[in-house]
Design goal:
The two termini are 29 Å apart. The protein is an alpha+beta fold. Among the domains are: 8-18 and 213-334, ApbE-like domains (T-fold); 71-164, T-fold (Orthogonal Bundle), CATH 1.10.3980.10. Helix 6 (176-190) runs antiparallel to helix 7 (286-299). It is globular, with a radius of gyration of 20 Å. It has 9 helices and 16 strands. Its EC number is 2.7.1.180. It catalyses: L-threonyl-[protein] + FAD = FMN-L-threonyl-[protein] + AMP + H(+).
Length: 338
Amino acid sequence: MTVSITRRVAIPTIPEMPHAAPAGERIRELAGSTMGTTWSVKFVGSSTSVQTVHRMIPLALERVIAQMSPWESQSDISRFNRLALNQWQNLPLEFGRVMASALRIAAESGGAYDPTMGALVDLWGFGPSGSRVSPPPPDEVARRHRECGWQQLDLDTSARRLRRSNCGPLDLCGIAKGFAVDLVAETLGELGIHNALVEIGGELRGNGVKPDGSPWWVEIDRPERSTTDVAAEPILVALHQLAIATSGCERGFTRGADHFSHTLDPRTGWPIANGMMTATVLHRSCMEADGYATALMVLGPDAGVDFAVKHELAALVLFRHGDAVTELTTPALDAMLA
């Protein structure tokens, strides 16, 4: 028996006409591994362009890892985390871009997103030190929480340098993957490829169209356990000059009846327990979508949607209230729904 699935369709306002796919070219597909996950790229190009793209994408991803991976001891972020307090460190261009965005979202969200959570991320078993199966001692959580706070960072954008006044280490994992998507898309553009879909670990950015003129269609992620609980139909998005990032809380560990999400609340130092299941943001920048989605998860359903409305974000949140799963969308997303 064939089951018919009804979907809602979200089509963004197109600020400019997409580049027409060159005659005779078709969709090429490449994939690989990076940042503990996978990447894939679909692009409209010739057979001769495949080799160049296959060489350039890993180079772009390696720059992100070399600058912003806390798992690499010699990365720029690891060296900064070992630097003495109040000492300036010069930042590479990409690192500077991500830090400027991270600090702006931290300020806008009142610290719901915070790039200085490295010690707490590690303490809860979601960092380089490895996983854990039970929560850490509350006094240790409190101690490391006192070391955090985005206000301790001083970013000199003109000189592209950074320093800190407290010992909370940086962790940009809530935004760097989205930036990597943007960087790959920009790299393709520099190669003259303007019709492409870039994906890293489920976060995507689409530019242009397919050879037949249709957009790059993607469906907004839903956690598996919610698929039969939400009354609303799934949403299919046309990704033209648009990125999408979803943050969730399924990763983590369970102790007894309690699930401890990998999404930590920077304001308490503890995993979120606000009923949130996922937060999805559509934005021209995948980096921005990534950071904002994390902030919405921490803010929770009501404050998160209020924040998204205030900042004119196209967003969808799924949250559990008792046994029911509820979906909320913002006016900016509603305006895209056909």
